[in-house]
Each structure stands twice: as C-alpha cells, then as structure tokens.
Specification:
- This protein is of the alpha/beta class.
- Among the domains are: 119 residues, Periplasmic binding protein-like II (D-Maltodextrin-Binding Protein, domain 2, 3-Layer(aba) Sandwich); 88 residues, no CATH class; 104 residues, Rossmann fold.
- It is built from 15 helices and 23 strands.
- The strands form five sheets. A six-stranded mixed beta sheet has the order 15-20-19-16-17-18. Strands 2-1-3-10-4 form a five-stranded mixed beta sheet, with helices on both faces.
- The longest helix has 17 residues.
C-alpha cells in the first residue's frame, strides 16, 4: 500500500513528518510512505507577527486543501497551528506521544554581564502569551535586577530565530522546547549541518526551561496532528494503531479550554494539562480579550476526596506552622563528578557552592527557584513542586547525559537510587506543635510527618494530605495513604467548611 504524506517544507516539519512516517511503517511494514513537502502561507509571509495575520490556519490550510483534492493521503501538522474550529471535511485521525510542551529561554552568554550591569533585557518572541505571562516571572526568577524588560517580535523557522538572537539589540529568545529537541535529535544525515549550528548556538547561551506554573504552553504545543479526509476509512484504520490516546485526550482538553475564551494565537492565554497517577493537573494563565485575568492551577484528583471539615480540626493553617526543625549547615565539597544539581531547598545549595554557570541547577519548586535567583544563582528549571519523579528532560539541551546529585538534609529521602549529598541537618525545634483535637493534616515534608508521628502515635488514624512527591512516599512507608493536593492553599480552600 502506498501513502503520500504531506507536511510543510521547513526542516522541523520534515523531521516531524519522517517521525510519523517511520512510526507508521514500523506498525505496518506493508505500507510504503512517500513525502510531499510544501510552503504554507505562514512560511511565505515572514514579516507580520502571527497574531496580526487575519487568515486562519496560516500554516495548515494549504495542506488541508491538498487532502481534499486527494493530492496526498495524510498531512502532519504541529497541532498548536490548527484552528480551534473543526473542519467538516477532514479530521485529526491520530497523534504520536507528545513531546515536551514547555518553552525554553535562551540568553546569550556574552550579553548576560551587560544585562546584570544595566538591568536591561530584550527577548525575541512573537507570542503575546509568552510576553504577558513571563514579564512578572522573569523579573523574579532571573538572577539579576531587571529594570527594563522588552519583548520584540521575531519570525522565521527555529534556526532563523536563533540566528536573529545575535543581531544588535537582542539578548535572548524564547522557543518551544519540543522544536529544539526534535531538531537536535534528528537522525537523518540531511540535518547534520542544522544540528551542528544549533548545538553551537546553544553552547553560547544560558538556558532556562520555563515552568508551566508561570508560563503554560500554547494549547497542544509539542503534539503532532495527523489529518486525513473524513471519508478515508482505510487510512484511519491504519492510523488508529499508532494513535496515543492520552495525548489526543489531553490536547483536546486544552483546546476546549482555549475555545471557552475565544481561541486563536492572538490570545494572551496559555493552557497545559498533565495527567499523573494522582489526577489531572491544569495550568491556565493569561489575559482574555475582554480584560479578564486567568490564573488557575488545579488538580482533578483520581481519588475521591473525603468530606469537608471545620477549620479548627485542620492543621496547619499556615505552612510555616508545620516547620518542626531548625537547620544547621554541614560543610561539604561538591564533587566535579556531577554535572547537575537537584536542589531540594534553597538552603541546601551552599553559599560557596558551584559557580553560576558551571553546573546545571534544578529547583524543587518555584519558591526555591526564586530564593536561589535572589542569591545570584542561574536556575535552569524546576520540578514545580510535583516531586523529583518529574524528569527534567534536558539531556538533549545540555548536549550530554547528565549526572545528578541531590542536595538535601542528612536524613533526606532518595528517590529511585538518586545520589544525594547532605548539606544541612534538621534539628528539632522546642516546643513542638500541639496536634491534639485535629483530624485533617497537610504535610509539607516527610521529615515533619515522621517527627510528628514519633510524638503522636495516634496520627495514622487521622486523615492525611500532602503534595505529590517524596512526602507521599514517606507517608506510604508508614502505612498512611494520603490524599494529594498541589499545595497547601488548594487543600485549605477545598477541604474546609
């Protein structure tokens, strides 16, 4: 069976098309895939920002017309480029497992000293979403006092945009991580020069993987849409065998949320959905056309919640009340063996720790990130409070298989055999909190729970809550199955009468 697969002509689009073609042929060896690459309207117009272009589907409509004319059998798109409205004559029949949906900030290493000195930073991006959501975040999380932050429009494929970063007046660039990863991981020899040029550019930059909590992606970012004519049941049957159901469902959910606010790439709205064993997480941030500020970070749990309860039976009312310990520093030397540090708390990184660029720094959450930035540390990304089981996924960006070291306290939990280094010890405070009369407990650390348990043997009989990650694992070790919330504020709001 012969199938003609169409896609845009850019190198990234060809890589994505080949990925789909190879997956299809692996599932169906009898299928022969031929490729047909085309230039779209969006490729031809490289001057106007996308949000100013009135046409819908500027990267996809030309391919759709070819499907309807039966010039080819299927078309591969970046799903985020598709219009929110469905076409009555075509359908998205499948998608592959989603690539990383996050954005990446690249900042020229040669420009960073000037940024630190002047407080002025100019970043290239044509996305209203990125500019709106990242303006407050970057002022907090960059290790410099930014007094003037500008976002300037940029067009072109990824390689062109990266080159434009070296033009006068530009300090950095924001780009989809999935695009960088796919270009850098391309196996075909035709992309060797592009990979080498892109790798060289990245080595001359500092990078920062931008967190979904502050900067949710464009709906469906990182996902590939495989479009066919609706009457092609033969092609649809083949594609069903390679379809990733979870990706299709999550992407549809993101697009439906955007549709509620009008849809379109002109919107200053980011929405990302993650599915985990404990539930579905939704990140939504931005500004609607009518001026409504969006900021939703929520979990739809997989486990039924217990009934609500009076606040006087809940503990703690403030996260600080659950801090059972003082912290004493332990003098340490961080080995050069490790190329990346996972920092459990800001205090875990010694003041005389690694230089600002010498090692990859990954923070456990955004509060840790901010505190490290205030100390002048460049943070490359964060687990966003979701636990160290969340993979950083940055080997491709870093250009090497990273060796990780977790900086934590002397009795710190090591997940999945992670190498750890104790940089401080926990010393119990006196007096300890009085937990009598409380029935609902939210734990911000496993160490806090174990300390409380040693003083209150009745604790396992109560109802317990915590965030995802190691705290849940430690409670499980003591026979306690906690309910998962994303943070203390969400727990207090949802569970109190």
């Amino acid at each position: 069976m012969r199938l003609v697969l169409a896609a845009r002509r850019s190198e990234l689009a060809r890589i994505q098309a080949i990925q789909v073609g190879n997956t299809l042929q692996k599932a169906h060896p009898q299928v022969k895939v031929e490729y047909s690459f085309h230039e779209s309207l969006g490729d031809k117009n490289q001057n106007d920002p996308l949000w100013q272009m009135p046409e819908k589907g500027v990267f996809t409509q030309d391919l759709r017309e070819g499907l309807l004319a039966r010039r080819y059998d299927l078309a591969v798109h970046s799903w985020k480029d598709l219009t929110i409205e469905e076409d009555p004559q075509t359908e998205i029949a499948a998608t592959l497992p989603r690539a990383d949906m996050r954005d990446v900030l690249l900042v020229r290493a040669d420009r960073w000293p000037q940024v630190e000195r002047t407080g002025q930073l100019t970043i290239l991006t044509s996305s209203p979403r990125r500019a709106y959501n990242l303006e407050p975040f970057l002022r907090r999380e960059l290790p410099a006092k930014i007094s003037e932050l500008k976002f300037e429009p940029v067009r072109g494929n990824v390689q062109t945009r990266v080159r434009k970063m070296w033009q006068p007046g530009a300090d950095g660039l924001i780009v989809a991580k999935a695009a960088l990863d796919r270009l850098l991981e391309a196996e075909s020899s035709e992309f060797v020069e592009t990979k080498a040029a892109l790798r060289q550019a990245i080595t001359e930059c500092r990078f920062m993987v931008l967190p979904l909590r502050a900067n949710p992606a464009a709906p469906a970012q990182g996902a590939l849409a495989i479009e066919i004519k609706r009457d092609r049941s033969d092609v649809k049957a083949l594609l069903e065998t390679i379809n990733c159901v979870e990706t299709s469902e999550v992407v549809s959910r993101e697009r439906e949320i955007l549709r509620m606010y009008g849809g379109g790439c002109h919107q200053k709205i980011g929405v990302s959905v993650l599915r985990r064993s404990y539930g579905e997480i939704t990140f939504l941030r931005g500004l609607t056309d009518d001026g409504c500020v969006l900021d939703n970070y929520s979990l739809r749990p997989s486990q039924t919640r217990p009934p609500k309860i009076a606040r006087d039976q809940m503990w703690p009312m403030k996260p600080a009340d659950a801090d059972w310990f003082k912290r004493e520093r332990i003098p340490v030397t961080i080995s050069d063996t490790f190329s990346a540090l996972w920092v459990a708390k800001a205090d875990a990184l010694p003041d005389d720790g690694p230089g600002k660029v010498s090692k990859i720094i990954w923070a456990s959450g955004l509060k840790t990130w901010e505190r490290l930035a205030q100390r002048g540390v460049w943070v490359n990304g964060s687990a966003e409070g979701l636990g160290e089981q969340e993979p950083p996924g940055i080997n491709t960006l870093a250009g090497a298989e990273l060796t990780w070291l977790k900086l934590t306290h002397a009795d710190g939990f090591a997940w999945n055999g992670t190498n750890t280094l104790a940089t401080y010890r926990l010393v119990p405070k006196d007096p300890t909190p009085d937990l009598r009369g409380r029935k609902y407990f939210f734990w911000t650390s496993g160490s806090g729970f174990e300390r409380a348990l040693s003083l209150n043997s009745w604790l396992p009989e109560m109802t317990h809550f915590c965030g995802p990650g190691n705290t849940e694992k430690i409670l499980n070790q003591h026979g306690v199955k906690p309910h998962i919330f994303l943070d203390h504020d969400e727990w207090l709001k949802e569970m109190s009468l």
